[in-house]
Amino acid sequence: MSAGALPTGGASARGGTGATGPTVIRAQGVSKKFVSYHKRATSLKEMIVRRGGLSGEDFWALRDVNVEISRGQTVGLAGANGSGKSTLLKVLAGILRPTSGRVEVNGRIASLLELGAGFNGELSGRDNVYLNASLLGLTKRETDRLFDSIVDFAELRHKIDDEVKHYSSGQYVRLGFAVAVHVDPDILLVDEVLAVGDEAFQRKCLAKIDEFRSQGRTILFVTHSLDLIENMCDRVVVLESGRVIHDGAPAIGTKLLRQRLGSSPTEGSGAFSQATVRPETVTYSSTPGGPTEISYDPGDPLTITVGIEASAGCPPRVGVRCVAVGQHEIPIWVMETPAGGIPITPGFSFLDFTIDRLPALLGAFAVRVEVVDPTTGELITSRRFHDLFGISGSHAEGLVHVSYEARPRA
Fold this sequence. Notes:
single chain; alpha/beta; Rossmann fold; Coagulation Factor XIII, Chain A, domain 1; six-stranded mixed β-sheet; 22% helix; elongated
């Protein structure tokens, strides 16, 4: 990791918002590999006999992650358990070294990434304050000046001379957080550990984070609270299996994540399972046959690929209509196959609907796919997919941006 001056930069690609200054953290092509061991050698003799010593397989916690964080942004890292968000936070903090790629940081980082990280259980709370503060870059004189404020914030004056191995998990968090926020950080990194504290302390921590936001500090935090992301973040980075699947507007990211975590496709017609031609899958990409993407900017190309299953006895030709829908199932745009439909044969096939430039929209959208008789237009079957894609428009309000002129009448 290198720490030096970085060139000025805005939010990252894919719709980051809230950029207020130069780039202070940049991750380029970051991947992190761990080795998962199935069976360890239990003795030196066994290790020599087996020659290989340890049996394991590679596990990639992060794959080709590109993220830029601008000064003054509050960014949430979200995803399911095992998605790589805590690993990414540790790589950005310099605690873990990436297997490949590069991380650059400009500014003093204070991190609270693990319960009691940096604490020595045999030392008192007082000694651990000085130890932890020194690890974060404070001198003894600076810690002397801040000590009373740290202890008061943690509400641990009655326990400060006890060994921290006798602290509860909540007391660990309170002391660790109190030290971290008193080192005057440029960048604050916080993992899900705040969930351990009681409700009153959580409110106190959030108030401190809000104070940092008003001061223009840069904040990154991992949380499973999607409401917190929507209320406090300028931007959210959503990870899935170690890859970034969304980097942009919090409202879009949280909706996409809720969909990934909890929903499944549903049939759009009671006759769906009996139909001889059925839309079974939908995917989104920048180019036909390209990798799946779910986050786009206005002006980006988009290909919606519909996977169609046809059974024996299917008609020779069908029409297919693909409707992009927004909130409350409002149709946003409609795409149809040419007049006369397309040929269809038993088996699985793909149909690409390609858009050269996405309109200036803001929101998360789904699609409804209808199969119709190409001659009469009669509906054969339909399916409304729950798979979403997001467009991060730059306009402040409204669903669609239009060019207009305001001119007083003479």
